Amino acid sequence: MPEVPEGNPPAPVPEKAPAPAAAINKPVPAPWDCALVQQLKNAFGSGICDAGSFAGQNYLVVDRSVCHDVLRNLYEVSGYTSLTDETAVHYPKDALPFEMVWILFSMAANERVRVKARFADGEEVPTVTDLWVGANWMEREAYDMFGIRFTGHPDLRRILMPEDWTGYPLRKDYDSHKQDTDWVQKNLGIESGQ
What we know:
Elements: E1 30-31, H1 35-44, E2 48-54, E3 57-62, H2 67-76, E4 82-90, E5 98-106, E6 111-119, E7 125-126, H3 135-146, E8 150-151, H4 181-188
Parallel strand pairs: 3-6, 7-8
Antiparallel strand pairs: 1-2, 2-3, 4-5, 5-6
């Protein structure tokens, strides 16, 4: 046991108080208003639901009824000739649970824009393979992982999971502990892939 020095014991070290909420710098969406947004609002009116910038990333929220037309306009008129990503997000409790996200890049302007639109479960999304051939595999992945079907896609089939797999692994209501046990048993000869 260590010896305690004579005299007064050392003063306790005060606990550091957490920073007040106002002192924490959290990114907040800001309105994004520029010539491009004005041109799109003039062309599509209320189909452009929101235009903002969040953490330095510009985005458009568009109505699903005009999403393909907006994407075509961005490609043909505004020079967003590169589709860098196309994916989805699943919000199972929402009335429109699937949010499609297209990330476009304009090499001429050196700018990116994210375009988002919400869809119902089972509702088909218009393919953009007619604009960007590289969307083919991205849409196959969204189909494979989320079960989203794309109208007009040239070859919509699974790309990561086996063709006869049951379920869509990136849906938030997909229980990873209850994977397709029938497929695992039949093809791997084991009780569980876990």
